[in-house]
From TrEMBL, chain A:
Belongs to the binding-protein-dependent transport system permease family. CysTW subfamily. This is ABC transporter permease. Residues 59-249 form the ABC transmembrane type-1 domain. It holds the Pfam family BPD_transp_1. InterPro entries: MetI-like (IPR000515), MetI-like_sf (IPR035906). SUPFAM superfamilies: MetI-like. The chain crosses the membrane at residues 12-34, 54-81, 93-113, 125-153, 174-196, 233-250. Its main location: membrane. It is a multi-pass membrane protein. The keyword Transmembrane applies. It is found in: Cell membrane. Keywords: Cell membrane, Membrane, Transmembrane, Transmembrane helix, Transport.
From TrEMBL, chain B:
It comes from Lachnospira hominis. Keywords: Cell membrane, Membrane, Transmembrane, Transmembrane helix, Transport. This is ABC transporter permease. It is found in: Cell membrane. Signal peptide: none annotated. The chain crosses the membrane at residues 5-28, 60-86, 98-124, 130-151, 172-197, 234-256. InterPro entries: Bact_Polyamine_Transport, MetI-like, MetI-like_sf. Belongs to the binding-protein-dependent transport system permease family. CysTW subfamily. Residues 60-253 form the ABC transmembrane type-1 domain. It is a multi-pass membrane protein.
Length: 264, 265
């Protein structure tokens, strides 16, 4: 009896840590979102968000930016992952590694590098703020889209593709009817990896001189103004969006995909 | 034939997109140019500046110390957490897994902001104690250590631990001699992951760090807003060094084990 006890107890420090630094901050966030400066219950912060055209505009801009970035990432990543998973390419492991390696380099330094190249091409970055942001985010998040797609596509049962061919389907039909539907879990998990950062990573915008706000920038500006209550409300709204996205992606988001998958 | 060329073209174009900026910057880091353009002369000035400017030295040393320190704490917490959860009742295990998943799916902005509010605003802990910053980075990385260790625990043969106990080992002795060696590869990749996440983080650091302290990310973001060309080009050198280290580590991790397997196999 005593033996079983000792192994279980090992989980206690981490359990306490998670409660204190993961669960408690979120509860405090909810408390701050629904109180005012004097600590009284209030829905002013909620009303502030949904009545101010600026914040609503920010929400829309974030969604548009996130959708465009995610689509661009998907359109680039899918062919790459498909080719890597299904063709006999020499040194496939090395090429896959090359696609994943940028994840290891500090993203601010990578965006700095991209910025220099974009300045050279465009002359002045201020001309195309939206385009530059999409390029910057694609540059930053592309590996997170390629990896889950590659994982799903390479695990795909080859005999199904052969069966489709035997039954008379041409390449295009096989792709539409067999390969694409089976790769949906990879797409969903890739999309959830890119969509949320695209709504919140305001550093990419700042560094590329895009002065339009996204949801993350709102938190940043309330933080700078010591406005914890409105900031918490934005964080809470983001949390709800995150919950919705995670619910949709649900079980397809397995342990091997995502940020951790690159290195494990 | 056309299909094959097309395949290689797609792969090469995307790789070019991902690597041209880093490589161009790497070339320019060895010149005296202050902008990407005409090269006048080759120079190591950027590397000298990088390692002799006190401000840059502090930033690099501080980031590394923070990364390894927080990764060490995260590795201990994440590993013990995974082992403890693995041998606990299903309900406890599921609760831990769900809580563990929160920082993984959450946006870093929200993680950083919520930790700042709890520790700094509610508990009144000063940011100058580094407690909020270290706690924040552990929150960011410990879940990934947990996720790296759990599959290794599942692959383990449970009878080995019981055999050790039957042969007279104490549970603690059996833990270190039987369980830890079998999950060591998971612990190591979790640790490496934790170091990388800490080095890459901007958002948690910016909400929890002391005003006088800078990580690589917060420093770079501030430097791009400023107009000091000397600092700007020194950062190109930093980017190049990190790129070379990443290549070296990747080669080491991926080539050394595959050679070993070949020898053993």
């Amino acid at each position: 009896m005593k033996n079983m006890f000792s192994r279980k107890q090992l989980g206690i420090p981490y359990g306490l840590f998670l409660v204190l630094f993961v669960a408690a901050p979120l509860l405090v966030l909810v408390y701050y979102a629904f109180t005012d400066g004097s600590g009284k219950f209030s829905i002013t912060n909620l009303l502030n968000f949904f009545t101010d055209p600026n914040t609503l505009g920010t929400l829309c801009y974030s969604f548009v930016l996130a959708i465009v970035t995610t689509l661009v990432c998907l359109l680039i990543a899918y062919p790459v992952a498909y080719i890597l998973a299904h063709s006999k390419i020499k040194r496939k492991a090395v090429i896959l590694l090359l696609f994943v390696m940028p994840m290891w380099i500090n993203f601010t330094l990578r965006i700095t590098a991209l910025k220099e190249i974009l300045s050279l091409i465009e002359g002045n970055l201020a001309f195309y703020p939206f385009l530059n942001t999409v390029i910057g985010m694609t540059y930053d998040f592309l590996p997170f889209m390629i990896l889950p797609l590659y994982t799903t596509l390479s695990k795909l049962d080859k005999s199904l593709i052969e069966a489709a061919a035997d039954l008379g389907a041409d390449n295009f039909q096989t792709f539409i009817k067999v390969i694409f539907p089976l790769s949906v879990p990879g797409i969903v998990s890739g999309v959830s990896m890119v969509f949320l950062p695209a709504m919140t990573n305001y550093v990419v915008l700042d560094m590329l001189y895009n002065s339009t706000y996204i949801m993350g920038s709102l938190i940043g500006s309330y933080f700078s103004a010591y406005d914890w209550h409105n900031g918490s409300m934005i964080a809470l709204i983001l949390l709800i969006i995150i919950c919705i996205v995670s619910l949709i992606s649900g079980d397809s988001d397995s342990e091997e995909s995502g940020r951790g998958g690159a290195l494990l | 034939m056309i299909k094959k060329i097309l395949k290689y073209a797609v792969i090469s174009l995307v790789l070019l997109f991902m690597y041209v900026p880093i490589l161009v910057l790497a070339v320019y880091s060895f010149t005296d140019a202050s902008n990407i353009g005409a090269i006048h002369a080759f120079s190591f000035q950027n590397y000298v500046t990088l390692f002799t400017t006190p401000e840059l030295q502090h930033m690099i040393f501080g980031s590394i110390l923070l990364a390894f320190g927080s990764a060490a704490i995260a590795t201990i917490l994440g590993t013990t957490g995974a082992v403890g959860a693995f041998y606990s009742k299903k309900r406890v295990r599921n609760t831990l897994s769900v809580l563990n998943q929160v920082p993984v799916v959450n946006a870093d902005v929200v993680t950083g902001f919520s930790i700042c509010i709890l520790i700094v605003v509610v508990f009144g802990v000063s940011k100058d104690t580094y407690i909020p910053l270290v706690a924040g980075h552990v929150v960011l990385s410990a879940p990934f250590v947990y996720l790296a260790v759990v599959p290794k625990l599942k692959q383990m043969d449970p009878s080995l631990y019981e055999a050790a106990l039957d042969l007279g080992a104490t549970p603690a002795y059996a833990l270190f001699k039987v369980i830890i060696p079998q999950i060591a590869s998971g612990i190591l990749s979790g640790f490496v992951m934790a170091v990388t996440l800490s080095l890459d983080d901007y958002f948690v650091a910016t909400y929890t760090k002391p005003a006088t302290f800078d990580t690589i990310s917060t420093y770079v973001v501030n430097a791009t807003k400023g107009s000091q060309t000397q600092i700007k080009t020194a950062l190109w050198a930093l980017s190049t060094i990190i790129f070379i280290i990443v290549i070296a580590v990747e080669l080491f991790i991926n080539i050394v084990p595959s050679r070993k397997e070949k020898k053993e196999g």
